[in-house]
Write a structure and sequence with these properties.
This protein has 260 residues and is an all-beta fold. It folds into two domains: 142 residues; 78 residues, no CATH class. Helices cover 3% and strands 37% of the residues. The chain has one helix and 22 strands. The strands form six sheets. A five-stranded antiparallel β-sheet has the order 1-7-4-2-3, with no helix packed on it. The chain has a five-stranded antiparallel β-sheet with strand order 8-22-20-10-11, with no helix packed on it. Strands 13, 14, 15, 17 and 18 form a five-stranded antiparallel β-sheet that branches. Strand 2 and strand 3 form a beta hairpin.
Length: 260
Amino acid sequence: MALAISNNRVRSALERGVAAIDTTTNAGAINAGDIVYNTGAGAASLLGGSSLTAAIVTQIGKLLGVSLDTYPIPYTDGITETVTSPSISLYNEGEFAFATTASDTLVPGAPVTIGNGAQTVTVAPVGPTMVGSSASGTGGTWSVGSHVVEATLLTALGETTPGISATVTVASGDEIVTEAATVPAYALGVNYYVDGLFAGFSASGSPTTLTGPSTAPHAAPTHNALAIGVVAQDQSSVGGSVGSTITGAVGQNVVVKLAL
């Protein structure tokens, strides 16, 4: 279970809902302030982990919001109570203070995803850093000159935002060959873009020859499919000045605008 934060909301005008609790997942234990998802049988805390997995990505796609309640129901004398057909109230919109992940750099507006715990966030992963190289050969249809090459990770929820791009200069008839990219276990492969348009896919991340832009143009995404929200501009309530960058650390929280 995550830290028992009783109320981590920092903005009013939040949308509320009610969800039944899945008492078979995480033993049904939910803390107020936990990020919760729909198991198919009810709500459960999304505990995350030290690294993303395909299972966690699936859970991210089923997020319900942030729990207002704690279950089993605690009392001041230390006794807890379980009830038949339990449910929780939750917020599915608003801004919340979450714990940060050590060494993360959290810039206002940056997308974040679930970290190692139901009340912890981390910077959402992006596509591989791209190093492209032109290859003299036949069949390339690129215009002569410089082109920007970038890549995203394709997941079950869609694509991440692109990683760091590279500029490649090609001559007439050249193809563009990408570098080998590591495909993490939660991803289905790598999508490659040139000048913002889709140009190729690799399931393994191995070097890929790009002969030209797709005949059915698809633009590089600007929304990260793994994000559960973005870092809010106003972080003054958690130790940072308004619009400041926060470095993740134990005891350091960050305000996140939920985006489900």
